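Quick one: structure for this chain?
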Amino acid sequence: MNNFTNMNSKIAQAHADLSVIGDNDTRATLEIECAEMYSRGQARLYMNDLAASMSGTFIAKLNDVVTEEEITPYITDSSKKPTPQSLNGSLKMVAVYSLIQSGYTNAQTIETALVNWFEQDGINTEQELCFTSIAADLIEQLKVAELVEQEEGQAFLEGAYFNVYGLTAEYNELRFTYMSNMWNKSEPKMTPMRHPVTWKTDGTCELPNLKLVKGKSKPKLAFIEAINKMNHTGYRINTAIRAELELWIENEAEHAPEMVDDEKVNRSLEAKHDAKCAIIMDLLELPINETFYFAHTSDWRGRVYPRGGLTQYQSIKEAKAIFDFAKEVEIKDTTGLYIQVANAHDMDKVSINDRIQWVKDNHAELMAGTLANNFYAKRAALALREVAETGKTAIICHIDGTCNGTQWTAAMYRDTKTGEHVNIMKADLSDLPRDLYGVIAEAAEKLATGKERAAFIKFGRGLTKTPIMTLGYGASEQTLIKGVTEYLRENEFKADSKKVVKAIMTAIKRKAPSLIRLTNNLKRILKANPMHKLNWSAYDLEVVCQYLTTEHMDLKGNSYTAKLLGKALPDEEALRRGISPNYVHSLDSAHVRAIVRESKVGLSCIHDSIGCPANMVMETNKIIRTTFHHINKIDLVENIYNALGANYTAQNGELDINEVLESPYIFS
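Got it. Here's what it folds into:
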């Protein structure tokens, strides 16, 4: 009788061999650090990943075992929408999952797995299921498909032998081949690095399997220049903020969110709190007095991200607070620092002059840190003390865009009506920055009645912010309604979400028409002339836009995950739905890279947030304006129409794009 106890010995030994490369705390050289990160990427791929990757091959060989119907597994993450899936596909997936992991199975193992899956994932079916007979049927099918041996053998587990059907030698070897291929293709497991990496012109760097740009978009030399400048910008952990975060974690229970009557909202609040704690714990693992660097990569639109999970400088506010630039700068003019301090203390809706005056008026309390209500504000107040004591600080000062996506569409159409609300028109430091969210909230309040009007009165810009942001990036009306529903539920307020969205949409059409103009126009063009693939130029990146959909069953239970193999096909609907936001994203990301190239110093950037040293705030603001102006000197609407092969007649408004050169609030 065959003994199947050691079915995993070959994979286990290979996994053990690659795992020993890691855990080199010194990371003395770039080569050692890269080897460690690559091995960490390999080591995290093990039997669960093997089963998920290989299950489709096995499932495709098995017949249905019950009458087919759709089921919807319960999903713990409230931010994800439950996806209906095949009952037969799910049953087969559960059966083969444990088989692939262990290398053997029997009817009792399958039955137990099916029962656990059914209970844990909260499955409801229209038919009564007998798991004993289903498990027996699946065992026979595994034998008929010659996935397992025809005769039983034995396996030894927890002090006892039991009868099992083991994988055939052919499929056991296939498991090792799958795992080897997965290891060879694995991306490195990124963390903040002790040494910077450098991208070469062929899109490779010192880290194996790390890709500069995902998809088929092609970067130019200027693109690589900007990314390398970001790669070589150093960061350090602020020890004072670190000490305060340690105390926060020690008393974490005191900071738990208050529960409400809605169970779904409570799950979401708890999940967010747990995620925040996990990030802070990772931040506290980083050693002090060391300089860190981040490898940056880009999606196909050119949007650049620092690699390192959420343990990086543009994560949650606690992460923004704990990371400093590696080098201190001397502060002779406190203007930029004062703006950062005011912004961090939620004074970013007043004029720049008033922000500076506010810091002067509250200087004693700010120095004492008594006005700070979060770690980000505490770091800003700490910078005041650092400058007072040493004349220097390493704080990262963040300059953020105002409804950045709408800034681009307003500039494209030279739309003064929208442009004045997103701060791309001439202003001086005594003027108030305009607030599109507030403008739309005020207009929508006048359009609404009853509970809906009460909602706008109570929540103001808080109610309009997410709809405006997502609408500018191509969200459907249904998505907007869902977002408003979630917002009202979390704030325990009852109103008709459809009526709220209707008021917002009407207000947008009247106050900020270019917010949705590009989206509507490009969708109309692609509806009349559908496309599988689209190319356009975004200055230092040749963008290739192509969405693919796979004809497979995507099985998303909590306990098990697998995909049936399928054929990837172009998704015209996804391309049409995403064309406007993707085009804008390619432009705003090109803008960020232009800012990085023009700056004299390294910057801390992501999307519409630019981090600079405290002595470079006003200079960086000027660079932001000049680069935005330069990109918008050409007709960007004509640019995308040409890519679409569409007829174009300019219909620009009266906005003078030169005004942006005198608009300090475009990013502030």
